[in-house]
Every structure is written in C-alpha cells, then in structure tokens.
Amino acid sequence: MSAPRKSMHGEWSGRFAFILAATGSAVGLGNIWKFPYITGENGGGAFVIVYLICIASIGIPIMMAEVMLGRRGRQSPINTMRSLAEEAGASRFWTLLGWAGVVAGFLILSYYSVIAGWALAYVFRTGSGLFLGVTADGAGSLFNQFIADPEKLLAWHTIFIVMTMAVVSRGVSGGLEKSVRFLMPALFVILVILLGYAMNTSEFSRGVRFLFNPDFTKITADGVLTAMGHAFFTLSLGMGAIMVYGSYLPKNISIAKTSIIIALMDTLVALVAGLIIFPIVFTNGLEPGSGPGLIFKTLPIAFGHMPGGIFFGTLFFILLVFAAWSSAISLIEPAVAWLVENRGHTRVYASVVMGALTWLVGLLTVFSFNIWSDYKPLAHISIFEDKTVFDLLDYLTANIMLPLGGVLIAIFVGWVLRRETSMHELDIHDRMHIGYRTWHVLVKVVAPIAVIIVFLKGIGVIDAVFG
Ligand code: PFF
C-alpha cells in the first residue's frame, strides 16, 4: 500500500489554519496546569532551563520529523507508518509505532479529560461568585472538597468527553479547524490580561526569579526526565497527534518554519502561565510545590480579590477549557482516523466508540483523587512508591511512552527514510544546506542518544548498573 496524495479526511485550508490547529494541540493543560506545578515541584529555574533546552534541541527537530511523516503518508499514523516503512523497504514492525501512539493518546485523554472537567467546574464556581474574598486556606479546602467527590468529577469528565467527540465527529474542516479559529486568539488575549494583573502583585519579581534564576542543586535525574517528558507532552509529540495533523497539511507549506512558530508559541504560553501563577502563589504565601491542584488553589484567590474578578476568572477557566478542548481533539484524532480508514466506519460512529472507551478508562483517574487516593499500586518500587493510579498513568505516558515514541520517530526519519524524501519534504535542494544538516544530525544522532540517556538515568537504570 503506497501513500495517497491527499488525505481522505480532508485538508487544512492553509498555513495559518495548520499553525492554529497544531498550536491548539500543543497549547493545553500541559502549559497552564502542568508546567507551573511540575516547575514548582522541581525547584524552578534550573528545571525551566532543562525544559527549554529539550524544546529547542529535541522538540523542534522531532516535530519537523513528525509533520513530515504525516504529510508524506497522508493517513492515520498507523497506516502512515505502514506505507512509509514499505516505501523505504523497512520492516513492518514500524507499524507498531503507530499503534503505540494510538494507545498513548487514548490513555492521555482518559486523564486529561478529568482535569479538563475540573476546569469546566471552575467556570461555574468562579462565575457564581464562590471565590469572592476567599482566603488561601479557603480556596485550598474548596478544591479538596471538590476532588473528594467522585460523582462530581465523573459528571464533568463525561461532559468534557462529549464535547471532544462532538468536534471530532464533525471532521477536519467543519470540526477541528472551525473550533481553533475562535479558541486560540481568545486564549492569547486573556493570558495577556492576567499577566497584567500578576505584574501588579507585590511578589511579581520573586515569581520571575523563581522561574528564571537557576539553582542547579535543586534538580535531580528524575527532574531532568520530567522536563524532557514534558517537552514531548507540551508539543504533543511522540504519539502521532502532530503526525495526523501533518497529514492534513497542504503541499508547499514550509514544515521547518511552521514547526518553529508552533514551538515558540507553545513555549511563550507556558512561560506566561508561570509568570501569572508564581507571583500569585508567593503573594499569598502558598507553596509552589503543591502538585496538580496548584492553579485551582491559587488563581481563585486572585479572582476573589481583583476588580472584575468574577468576569476575568470565569473567562480564564473558559479559556483553559478551550485550550484543553483543542488538545483533546488531537489526542483522539489518530484513533478515529484509523477506525474510519480501516474499518469503514463513519466519523460519528468512530467518535462514539472511542469516546466511550476513553470515558471508561477515565474512571481510574476520577477515583485516584478520592476513593483510591491511598491506593499506590506500585508502592514496592521506590520511584513509584507515592504514586496513585493517576500519577502512574501520567508517568507512563508523559515520561515513558512519548519520549520513546519520539525517539523511534527520530530514528525512522534519520535512519530509515531516504534522504531524498526528507529533503523533498523540507524543500531542500542542496545536501550541504546547513539548516538541513543540523536538523538531520539532531534527529539522527543527538535526539536518540539524549533521550535514551535521560530516560535510563531518570528511571534509575544507569545508577543501578554503574553504581
Ligand atoms: N500538548 C497538550 C498539552 O500541553 O496540554 C497535550 C497533548 C496533546 C499531548 C496531544 C500529546 C498529544 F498528542
């Protein structure tokens, strides 16, 4: 089976639509919810520097590789990998990479949707004035009470899954593209407004120092792995989301330029989110390392005291939902596209099936915050001893599956795909082109070696072997 010239699912209307959609995939809970709390847990500045290095040296080159494979294969990641491996005369085992991506996307969406459900709930909680004049303790206990109630989490999780599937079922131009055209610009505007608020808090400069002054004694091997895993997570790499978006990319749009723009926008949003959240954390005497509840415990305090707080707060959580929404659709698109291609199902049917499965697996996360909060399934392994089922899902996908998926994509593009193919896709005519050679060395050698070392060190294998 060779690759078709156009995707059967349609195409983006142009370069801007692709940038919006891919940025929509990249910018999500990862930037606004996860980046601040893992930065807080890993000591701040040094973690941020490692993260930025990973984005530039591994993230951008692998993003280019993924978009390239997608545009070349023009199908869901499973079928793209199959036909490109065939075209290059390589083993059919590469198809498994597409499968691993589908599984990763599905597992990520199962917990992503639960957290997006928190954001949905907070739209209504903020809008109803619940946080007016709230103290730090009050915001913390409101959050703790909320996640202690499995029925509430389940209800919001269900609503979010239905929202996601409603967009996916409408297809590439009628669903995916239409939604991001509105969601992304709105998100940027509200971030700027909130940044204005944070700059006027008394501890703004402390927040800036926390984010940008590195103290390398605070970073551990596990922290480096988390930073690297997060670089993959935040750019939506290593599981075929960007690949499937690349399969809808019209010819003659520059892969290098668009990838760089997408990564820059994503990084900007994460840093701005940090600049909003840490000043509020310090101004209110809170702990930056307080885990997944961080933004839900801190931002309501700001909204409870600022003029127009109900308005801005509600708007903020709406936009967090939007950011999560445009990412969630990309998490499940590879699986839906595959069901349509191989099983001949309609998009609507494929979306319902995948939505129902994801919803079911999401129960694991729902219960991790309440009835199973003391259940640590791998407590006998030291790095996992305090991890709940949700923590394990997050670790497995972000720290293991995405980096490994990303490395295999890099290896495929660097070692298996013919050079002529990658040169053609990047519109390069001279083998000696400096940009091309740099990129090629990064995907062929640097990214695989770096990821494997960080990975083995992070999970403790290197220490176990070399003592
Ligand atoms: N990049 C998204 C975020 O930062 O929230 C999450 C994500 C989306 C990860 C799509 C992976 C993916 F394929």
Describe this structure in words.
- With 467 residues, the protein is an all-alpha fold.
- It has a single domain (15-376), classed as Hydantoin permease.
- It is 75% helix and 0% strand.
- The protein has 19 helices and no strands.
- It has helices at 15-26, 29-41, 45-73, 77-87, 95-127, 136-147, 150-168, 172-199, 204-212, 221-234, 241-246, 255-283, 294-305, 309-343, 347-368, 389-416, 419-426, 434-458, 461-466.
- Helix 1 packs across helix 8 and helix 2 crosses helix 12.
Q: In the CATH scheme, what's the topology name?
A: Hydantoin permease
Bound molecules: 4-fluoro-L-phenylalanine
Straight-line distance between termini: 49 Å
Mean pLDDT: 92
Rg over C-alpha atoms, rounded to the nearest angstrom: 21 Å
Q: How many β strands by DSSP? A: 0
Task: Report the principal-axis shape.
Answer: globular
Q: How do the SSEs run, as a string of H and E?
A: HHHHHHHHHHHHHHHHHHH
CATH class: Mainly Alpha
Name the helicity range. over 70%
Could you give a short account of the major beta sheet? none
Proportion of strand residues: under 5%
CATH superfamily annotation: Hydantoin permease
Describe this protein with a few key phrases:
mainly alpha, Hydantoin permease, 467 residues, single chain, binds 4-fluoro-L-phenylalanine
